[in-house]
Design goal:
Layout: H1 7-23, H2 40-43, H3 51-56, H4 62-66, E1 94-95, E2 103-106, E3 109-112, H5 125-141, E4 156-160, H6 166-174, E5 179-184, E6 192-193, E7 197-201, E8 215-221, H7 230-240, E9 241-252, E10 257-258, H8 268-281, H9 293-299, E11 303-313, H10 321-349, H11 354-368, E12 375-385
Helix pairs in contact: 1-5, 1-10, 5-10, 8-10, 8-11, 10-11
Length: 388
Protein backbone atom coordinates (compact mmCIF):
# COMPACT_ATOMS: atom_id res chain seq x y z
CA UNK A 1 0.00 0.00 0.00
CA UNK A 2 1.32 3.42 -0.86
CA UNK A 3 2.44 5.43 2.15
CA UNK A 4 -0.09 8.19 2.90
CA UNK A 5 0.95 11.82 2.84
CA UNK A 6 1.87 13.64 6.05
CA UNK A 7 -1.19 15.22 7.65
CA UNK A 8 0.89 18.29 8.28
CA UNK A 9 0.61 18.92 4.55
CA UNK A 10 -3.12 18.19 4.67
CA UNK A 11 -3.55 20.49 7.66
CA UNK A 12 -1.73 23.26 5.85
CA UNK A 13 -4.00 22.77 2.84
CA UNK A 14 -7.11 23.02 5.03
CA UNK A 15 -5.68 25.99 6.86
CA UNK A 16 -4.65 27.67 3.63
CA UNK A 17 -8.19 27.48 2.30
CA UNK A 18 -9.54 28.97 5.51
CA UNK A 19 -6.89 31.68 5.73
CA UNK A 20 -7.26 32.67 2.06
CA UNK A 21 -10.56 34.38 2.65
CA UNK A 22 -8.92 36.68 5.21
CA UNK A 23 -6.09 37.76 2.92
CA UNK A 24 -7.58 37.75 -0.58
CA UNK A 25 -7.84 41.54 -0.74
CA UNK A 26 -4.30 42.20 0.46
CA UNK A 27 -1.10 42.15 -1.56
CA UNK A 28 0.68 38.82 -1.42
CA UNK A 29 4.42 38.39 -1.93
CA UNK A 30 5.90 35.13 -3.07
CA UNK A 31 4.44 32.13 -1.21
CA UNK A 32 6.03 31.17 2.08
CA UNK A 33 6.48 27.42 2.27
CA UNK A 34 5.30 25.52 5.31
CA UNK A 35 7.76 23.45 7.32
CA UNK A 36 8.60 20.20 5.60
CA UNK A 37 8.26 17.05 7.64
CA UNK A 38 11.61 16.19 9.15
CA UNK A 39 12.97 12.70 9.78
CA UNK A 40 12.35 11.45 13.29
CA UNK A 41 16.05 11.37 14.13
CA UNK A 42 17.02 14.96 14.72
CA UNK A 43 13.52 16.36 14.38
CA UNK A 44 12.92 16.29 18.12
CA UNK A 45 15.16 16.64 21.17
CA UNK A 46 17.56 13.74 21.35
CA UNK A 47 16.82 10.84 23.67
CA UNK A 48 18.44 11.24 27.06
CA UNK A 49 18.73 15.02 26.78
CA UNK A 50 18.07 16.91 29.97
CA UNK A 51 15.61 19.81 29.81
CA UNK A 52 18.54 22.16 30.33
CA UNK A 53 20.22 20.72 27.26
CA UNK A 54 16.94 20.93 25.35
CA UNK A 55 16.64 24.60 26.24
CA UNK A 56 20.28 25.40 25.52
CA UNK A 57 20.96 23.49 22.32
CA UNK A 58 20.25 25.55 19.17
CA UNK A 59 19.93 22.36 17.17
CA UNK A 60 17.27 20.93 19.44
CA UNK A 61 15.44 24.10 20.33
CA UNK A 62 15.12 26.56 17.42
CA UNK A 63 13.09 28.90 19.58
CA UNK A 64 16.31 30.00 21.32
CA UNK A 65 17.92 31.07 18.06
CA UNK A 66 14.81 32.25 16.27
CA UNK A 67 12.60 33.65 19.00
CA UNK A 68 14.26 34.90 22.17
CA UNK A 69 11.43 35.04 24.73
CA UNK A 70 12.64 38.44 25.97
CA UNK A 71 13.27 39.93 22.53
CA UNK A 72 10.97 42.29 20.72
CA UNK A 73 9.53 40.95 17.47
CA UNK A 74 10.67 43.27 14.68
CA UNK A 75 7.75 44.80 12.81
CA UNK A 76 7.58 44.96 9.04
CA UNK A 77 6.76 48.53 8.02
CA UNK A 78 5.44 47.25 4.70
CA UNK A 79 3.52 44.34 6.19
CA UNK A 80 1.24 42.36 3.90
CA UNK A 81 -0.15 38.85 3.95
CA UNK A 82 1.82 36.02 2.40
CA UNK A 83 0.27 33.11 0.57
CA UNK A 84 1.43 29.56 0.76
CA UNK A 85 1.32 26.34 -1.16
CA UNK A 86 1.00 22.77 0.05
CA UNK A 87 0.11 19.37 -1.21
CA UNK A 88 -2.69 17.16 0.06
CA UNK A 89 -3.45 13.49 -0.29
CA UNK A 90 -5.79 10.96 1.23
CA UNK A 91 -4.67 8.67 4.01
CA UNK A 92 -5.21 4.93 3.66
CA UNK A 93 -5.34 3.08 6.94
CA UNK A 94 -7.51 1.23 9.42
CA UNK A 95 -11.00 2.30 10.44
CA UNK A 96 -11.90 3.76 13.84
CA UNK A 97 -14.82 2.42 15.88
CA UNK A 98 -17.12 4.77 17.82
CA UNK A 99 -20.72 4.44 18.96
CA UNK A 100 -21.05 7.89 20.52
CA UNK A 101 -22.42 9.82 17.54
CA UNK A 102 -25.11 11.96 19.13
CA UNK A 103 -24.93 15.75 19.19
CA UNK A 104 -26.94 18.72 20.38
CA UNK A 105 -27.55 21.95 18.48
CA UNK A 106 -27.69 25.49 19.83
CA UNK A 107 -27.15 28.96 18.35
CA UNK A 108 -26.88 27.38 14.89
CA UNK A 109 -23.81 25.42 16.03
CA UNK A 110 -23.28 21.76 16.92
CA UNK A 111 -22.00 20.62 20.33
CA UNK A 112 -21.01 17.32 21.93
CA UNK A 113 -23.67 15.23 23.69
CA UNK A 114 -21.41 12.94 25.76
CA UNK A 115 -20.91 14.59 29.19
CA UNK A 116 -23.02 17.47 27.92
CA UNK A 117 -21.92 20.86 29.20
CA UNK A 118 -18.32 19.94 30.11
CA UNK A 119 -16.98 21.67 26.99
CA UNK A 120 -18.51 25.01 26.04
CA UNK A 121 -17.41 25.23 22.41
CA UNK A 122 -18.78 23.71 19.18
CA UNK A 123 -17.46 20.60 17.42
CA UNK A 124 -18.96 21.11 13.94
CA UNK A 125 -17.14 21.36 10.62
CA UNK A 126 -16.19 25.06 10.88
CA UNK A 127 -14.70 24.44 14.31
CA UNK A 128 -12.83 21.35 13.11
CA UNK A 129 -11.30 23.38 10.27
CA UNK A 130 -10.26 26.02 12.79
CA UNK A 131 -8.68 23.39 15.04
CA UNK A 132 -6.68 22.04 12.12
CA UNK A 133 -5.58 25.60 11.31
CA UNK A 134 -4.46 25.99 14.92
CA UNK A 135 -2.41 22.79 14.60
CA UNK A 136 -0.76 24.09 11.43
CA UNK A 137 0.00 27.37 13.20
CA UNK A 138 1.76 25.65 16.11
CA UNK A 139 3.72 23.26 13.88
CA UNK A 140 4.83 26.23 11.77
CA UNK A 141 5.80 28.16 14.91
CA UNK A 142 7.84 25.18 16.15
CA UNK A 143 9.46 24.61 12.73
CA UNK A 144 7.92 21.18 12.25
CA UNK A 145 8.40 19.85 15.77
CA UNK A 146 5.48 17.96 17.26
CA UNK A 147 6.96 17.85 20.76
CA UNK A 148 9.87 19.09 22.87
CA UNK A 149 10.07 16.27 25.41
CA UNK A 150 13.18 14.17 24.61
CA UNK A 151 11.44 10.90 23.76
CA UNK A 152 13.43 7.67 23.47
CA UNK A 153 11.56 5.18 21.25
CA UNK A 154 8.20 5.59 23.02
CA UNK A 155 5.83 2.63 22.88
CA UNK A 156 2.59 4.11 24.27
CA UNK A 157 1.48 7.73 23.83
CA UNK A 158 -1.72 9.44 25.00
CA UNK A 159 -3.11 12.64 23.45
CA UNK A 160 -5.55 14.28 25.90
CA UNK A 161 -8.22 16.40 24.17
CA UNK A 162 -7.23 15.14 20.73
CA UNK A 163 -9.89 17.15 18.87
CA UNK A 164 -9.74 16.24 15.19
CA UNK A 165 -6.89 13.83 15.95
CA UNK A 166 -4.46 15.57 13.64
CA UNK A 167 -1.58 15.71 16.14
CA UNK A 168 -2.01 12.03 17.02
CA UNK A 169 -2.00 11.06 13.35
CA UNK A 170 1.17 13.06 12.72
CA UNK A 171 2.79 11.36 15.71
CA UNK A 172 1.74 8.02 14.27
CA UNK A 173 3.81 8.85 11.21
CA UNK A 174 6.69 10.20 13.31
CA UNK A 175 6.79 7.13 15.59
CA UNK A 176 5.43 4.17 13.61
CA UNK A 177 6.55 1.75 16.33
CA UNK A 178 4.42 3.49 19.01
CA UNK A 179 0.76 2.93 19.88
CA UNK A 180 -0.92 6.34 20.03
CA UNK A 181 -4.37 6.92 21.51
CA UNK A 182 -6.31 10.17 21.46
CA UNK A 183 -9.24 10.86 23.79
CA UNK A 184 -11.90 13.53 23.43
CA UNK A 185 -15.50 14.24 24.35
CA UNK A 186 -16.43 14.47 20.66
CA UNK A 187 -16.21 11.64 18.09
CA UNK A 188 -15.02 13.96 15.33
CA UNK A 189 -11.81 12.16 14.38
CA UNK A 190 -11.27 10.70 10.88
CA UNK A 191 -12.96 7.43 9.95
CA UNK A 192 -9.66 6.10 8.64
CA UNK A 193 -6.46 6.40 10.64
CA UNK A 194 -2.98 4.81 10.65
CA UNK A 195 -2.83 1.31 12.13
CA UNK A 196 -0.90 2.51 15.22
CA UNK A 197 -3.38 5.31 16.03
CA UNK A 198 -6.75 4.93 17.78
CA UNK A 199 -9.33 7.26 19.29
CA UNK A 200 -11.75 6.92 22.18
CA UNK A 201 -14.60 9.11 23.36
CA UNK A 202 -13.77 9.83 26.98
CA UNK A 203 -13.76 12.57 29.60
CA UNK A 204 -10.21 13.45 30.64
CA UNK A 205 -11.52 14.75 33.97
CA UNK A 206 -13.27 11.48 34.86
CA UNK A 207 -11.39 8.70 36.62
CA UNK A 208 -8.78 7.28 34.26
CA UNK A 209 -9.08 3.62 33.28
CA UNK A 210 -5.54 3.57 31.89
CA UNK A 211 -3.37 1.10 33.83
CA UNK A 212 -0.77 2.67 36.11
CA UNK A 213 2.75 3.01 34.74
CA UNK A 214 1.70 2.09 31.21
CA UNK A 215 2.44 5.24 29.16
CA UNK A 216 5.70 6.71 27.88
CA UNK A 217 4.41 10.15 26.96
CA UNK A 218 1.28 12.27 27.57
CA UNK A 219 0.53 15.25 25.34
CA UNK A 220 -1.96 17.97 26.35
CA UNK A 221 -2.51 20.95 24.07
CA UNK A 222 -5.09 23.77 23.88
CA UNK A 223 -6.96 22.55 26.96
CA UNK A 224 -6.69 25.58 29.23
CA UNK A 225 -10.23 26.67 28.30
CA UNK A 226 -11.68 23.25 29.09
CA UNK A 227 -10.08 21.68 32.18
CA UNK A 228 -11.55 22.65 35.56
CA UNK A 229 -9.22 20.75 37.89
CA UNK A 230 -5.64 20.71 36.63
CA UNK A 231 -3.98 19.26 39.78
CA UNK A 232 -6.25 16.19 39.68
CA UNK A 233 -5.69 15.71 35.95
CA UNK A 234 -1.91 15.91 36.37
CA UNK A 235 -1.93 13.48 39.30
CA UNK A 236 -3.75 10.94 37.13
CA UNK A 237 -1.29 11.54 34.32
CA UNK A 238 1.59 11.00 36.76
CA UNK A 239 0.11 7.69 37.88
CA UNK A 240 -0.40 6.51 34.28
CA UNK A 241 3.15 7.28 33.16
CA UNK A 242 6.00 4.80 33.39
CA UNK A 243 9.00 5.84 35.50
CA UNK A 244 11.05 8.06 33.20
CA UNK A 245 7.99 8.96 31.12
CA UNK A 246 7.28 12.51 29.99
CA UNK A 247 4.35 14.91 30.07
CA UNK A 248 4.05 17.96 27.83
CA UNK A 249 1.56 20.83 28.05
CA UNK A 250 1.28 23.29 25.15
CA UNK A 251 -1.03 26.22 25.85
CA UNK A 252 -1.93 29.65 24.54
CA UNK A 253 -2.29 32.45 27.05
CA UNK A 254 -5.40 34.39 26.08
CA UNK A 255 -3.99 37.86 26.55
CA UNK A 256 -2.78 40.43 24.03
CA UNK A 257 0.77 41.58 24.73
CA UNK A 258 2.90 44.17 22.97
CA UNK A 259 6.60 45.05 23.16
CA UNK A 260 6.74 48.36 21.28
CA UNK A 261 3.90 50.40 22.74
CA UNK A 262 1.67 50.25 19.64
CA UNK A 263 -1.19 48.43 21.41
CA UNK A 264 -3.91 50.94 22.16
CA UNK A 265 -5.78 51.12 25.44
CA UNK A 266 -9.15 49.42 25.16
CA UNK A 267 -8.01 46.96 22.48
CA UNK A 268 -11.10 44.94 21.60
CA UNK A 269 -9.30 41.63 21.17
CA UNK A 270 -8.02 41.91 24.74
CA UNK A 271 -11.51 42.98 25.80
CA UNK A 272 -12.93 39.87 24.13
CA UNK A 273 -10.52 37.63 26.06
CA UNK A 274 -11.36 39.37 29.34
CA UNK A 275 -15.07 38.98 28.67
CA UNK A 276 -14.58 35.31 27.80
CA UNK A 277 -12.63 34.84 31.03
CA UNK A 278 -15.58 36.27 32.97
CA UNK A 279 -18.03 34.05 31.09
CA UNK A 280 -16.11 30.83 31.69
CA UNK A 281 -15.97 31.48 35.45
CA UNK A 282 -19.66 30.51 35.45
CA UNK A 283 -18.58 27.04 34.25
CA UNK A 284 -15.72 26.74 36.79
CA UNK A 285 -13.08 27.18 34.08
CA UNK A 286 -10.08 29.50 34.46
CA UNK A 287 -9.19 30.76 30.98
CA UNK A 288 -5.71 31.76 32.22
CA UNK A 289 -5.00 28.54 34.09
CA UNK A 290 -1.96 27.94 31.89
CA UNK A 291 -0.01 30.50 33.92
CA UNK A 292 0.16 27.85 36.66
CA UNK A 293 1.26 24.98 34.41
CA UNK A 294 4.89 24.86 35.52
CA UNK A 295 3.94 25.02 39.20
CA UNK A 296 1.20 22.41 38.80
CA UNK A 297 3.47 20.00 36.92
CA UNK A 298 6.17 20.39 39.57
CA UNK A 299 3.71 19.89 42.44
CA UNK A 300 2.37 16.75 40.76
CA UNK A 301 5.78 15.17 41.34
CA UNK A 302 7.50 15.63 37.98
CA UNK A 303 11.17 16.54 37.84
CA UNK A 304 13.32 18.50 35.38
CA UNK A 305 10.31 20.71 34.67
CA UNK A 306 11.09 23.22 31.94
CA UNK A 307 8.97 26.03 30.50
CA UNK A 308 9.60 27.13 26.91
CA UNK A 309 8.01 30.48 25.95
CA UNK A 310 6.96 31.61 22.47
CA UNK A 311 5.21 34.65 21.04
CA UNK A 312 2.43 34.25 18.45
CA UNK A 313 1.75 37.50 16.55
CA UNK A 314 -1.77 38.62 15.77
CA UNK A 315 -1.66 39.55 12.09
CA UNK A 316 1.06 39.93 9.50
CA UNK A 317 2.98 42.81 11.08
CA UNK A 318 6.25 40.89 11.90
CA UNK A 319 9.19 41.31 9.55
CA UNK A 320 10.31 37.70 9.95
CA UNK A 321 8.58 35.62 7.20
CA UNK A 322 7.91 32.66 9.49
CA UNK A 323 6.35 34.81 12.20
CA UNK A 324 4.40 36.72 9.54
CA UNK A 325 2.86 33.42 8.44
CA UNK A 326 2.21 32.35 12.03
CA UNK A 327 0.50 35.70 12.61
CA UNK A 328 -1.70 35.19 9.56
CA UNK A 329 -2.76 31.80 10.88
CA UNK A 330 -3.49 33.29 14.29
CA UNK A 331 -5.52 36.23 13.00
CA UNK A 332 -7.59 33.92 10.79
CA UNK A 333 -8.05 31.45 13.65
CA UNK A 334 -9.27 34.18 16.01
CA UNK A 335 -11.60 35.67 13.37
CA UNK A 336 -13.22 32.32 12.64
CA UNK A 337 -13.55 31.55 16.37
CA UNK A 338 -15.34 34.67 17.55
CA UNK A 339 -19.02 33.76 17.20
CA UNK A 340 -18.65 30.01 17.67
CA UNK A 341 -16.60 30.08 20.86
CA UNK A 342 -18.52 33.02 22.37
CA UNK A 343 -22.11 31.98 21.67
CA UNK A 344 -22.63 29.52 24.51
CA UNK A 345 -20.41 31.08 27.23
CA UNK A 346 -21.75 34.58 26.60
CA UNK A 347 -25.43 33.62 26.36
CA UNK A 348 -25.46 31.00 29.12
CA UNK A 349 -22.81 32.45 31.40
CA UNK A 350 -23.28 36.22 30.95
CA UNK A 351 -26.93 36.08 29.81
CA UNK A 352 -26.27 38.06 26.64
CA UNK A 353 -28.63 37.83 23.70
CA UNK A 354 -27.31 36.73 20.33
CA UNK A 355 -28.06 40.19 18.96
CA UNK A 356 -25.94 41.78 21.69
CA UNK A 357 -23.14 39.34 20.89
CA UNK A 358 -23.24 40.10 17.15
CA UNK A 359 -23.09 43.87 17.74
CA UNK A 360 -20.17 43.45 20.14
CA UNK A 361 -18.20 41.28 17.71
CA UNK A 362 -18.29 43.94 14.97
CA UNK A 363 -15.68 46.01 16.81
CA UNK A 364 -13.60 42.94 17.66
CA UNK A 365 -13.40 41.99 13.99
CA UNK A 366 -12.39 45.55 13.07
CA UNK A 367 -9.56 45.41 15.60
CA UNK A 368 -8.21 42.24 14.01
CA UNK A 369 -7.58 44.06 10.73
CA UNK A 370 -5.59 46.88 12.32
CA UNK A 371 -1.96 46.14 11.44
CA UNK A 372 -0.68 49.25 13.21
CA UNK A 373 -0.99 47.50 16.57
CA UNK A 374 1.79 44.95 17.07
CA UNK A 375 0.05 42.56 19.43
CA UNK A 376 0.92 38.95 20.14
CA UNK A 377 -0.25 36.08 22.34
CA UNK A 378 2.09 34.14 24.63
CA UNK A 379 2.35 30.41 23.94
CA UNK A 380 4.14 28.29 26.54
CA UNK A 381 5.29 24.69 26.49
CA UNK A 382 5.93 22.91 29.80
CA UNK A 383 7.65 19.52 29.91
CA UNK A 384 8.32 17.32 32.92
CA UNK A 385 9.59 13.80 33.61
CA UNK A 386 8.35 11.20 36.07
CA UNK A 387 11.27 10.11 38.24
CA UNK A 388 12.82 6.77 37.28
Amino acid sequence: MEKPADTRDTADTTAAAAVAKHSKDEASPSPTSTPAKKPRIGSSPRAGSSPAEVAASPGSAPFIADLNPDATIEADDAASDAGYESDSASRASTSICSTVRDYEFENNRRYHRFQEGRYQFPNDEPEQEREDMKHAMIVHLCQGKLHYAPLDHPQKILDVGTGTGIWAIDMGDEYPEADIQGIDLSPIQPQWVPPNVSFMVDDAEAEWLIPPQSLDYIHIRHMTSSIRDWPTLLSRAYRALKPGGWIELQELKFQVKCDDGTLREGNMIQNFYETMESALVHFNVDLLAMRHNKKNVTEAGFIDVTEIPFKIPIGTWPKDPRLKMVGLYNRSMIHDALYGVAARPFTRGLKWTLDELEVYLVDVRKELTDGSQHGYMPFNIVIGQKPS
